[in-house]
Write a structure and sequence with these properties.
Elements: E1 3-11, E2 20-25, H1 28-37, E3 47-52, H2 85-88, E4 92-103, E5 109-125, E6 132-137, H3 146-165, H4 182-192, H5 197-204, H6 209-229
Parallel strand pairs: 1-3
Antiparallel strand pairs: 1-6, 2-5, 3-4, 4-5, 5-6
């Protein structure tokens, strides 16, 4: 199993392979990551790990990747994550490749990155300017009947989109826009569904593609049934915009 040590960027959501993630980086420990990545030649991958934060008192639930603002003046790369940062984070995460890193005049950064591969966190080091993690890559096995399950998920996903957008709205993805690889489909649907972070994390760490697709099929059917019974859809405009994992 391939291992590596990479910068660690905790967020209140999960990133999936193949999905684009825009970031606005303003806290010093994460700005330090971007300054380090800028030292990498442009023709080489600028990789870091996006990991979802577990729910708990150690991390502010309302601020992405930041410590609790009422917790005092705690500082440092592990601020807000407790004495053992590994316990405050989910163990399965996603490597991100920063295609664009743009520094603003005030020293903050605009970053556009793409998820590339799932990894498991083995350890976390807080001795530097930012958190780093030793990670091992997780293979993506297809599992049993992944192809047939993907077809069912796509059909259910299109119905889910139509219910969210309204009967007279055009579905977000026409048939010609949809992928045909079961793994890609499983990640696309996981990212596009309106789900809480624990559920997205569960999908990210599924043992294989078929297991993820089975879970998604159950979720899609349940969510579509709930939407069908609602008198109104207060947030249906979310389906008209580009998906953001931020």
């Amino acid at each position: 199993m391939t291992t590596a040590r990479l910068p660690l960027f905790p967020l209140n959501t999960a990133l999936f392979p193949g999905l684009v993630l825009p970031l606005s980086v303003f806290e010093e420990r994460y700005r330090a990551i971007m300054r380090e990545l800028l030292k990498t030649p442009e023709d080489e991958p600028r990789r870091f790990v996006v990991v979802a934060i577990r729910d708990g008192h150690q991390v502010a639930p309302s601020a992405t990747g930041l410590p609790d603002p009422d917790a005092g003046t705690e500082e440092g790369p592990a601020a807000g994550f407790g004495p053992d940062p590994l316990k405050a984070l989910h163990r399965v995460a996603c490597v991100a490749d920063a295609a664009t890193i743009r520094e603003r005049p005030d020293g903050t950064f605009e970053v556009l990155c793409t998820g590339t591969a799932r990894v498991r966190l083995l350890s976390v080091d807080d001795s530097g300017a930012f958190l780093t993690a030793e990670v091992e890559e997780l293979p993506e096995e297809p599992g049993d009947e992944a192809g047939a399950l993907a077809e069912g998920v796509l059909r259910s996903f299109q119905q889910y989109q139509k219910r969210l957008a309204g009967a007279h709205e055009r579905s977000i993805s026409a048939d010609s826009d949809l992928p045909d690889d079961p793994g890609v489909i499983s990640y696309l649907v996981a990212a596009a569904m309106v789900l809480d972070t624990p559920t997205k994390q569960r999908l990210l760490q599924a043992p294989d593609t078929a297991s993820r697709l089975r879970d998604e099929l159950k979720l899609l059917r349940a969510e579509t049934a709930i939407i069908r019974s609602l008198p109104s859809l207060p947030a249906f405009e979310l389906t008209r915009a580009r998906t953001s994992l931020n």
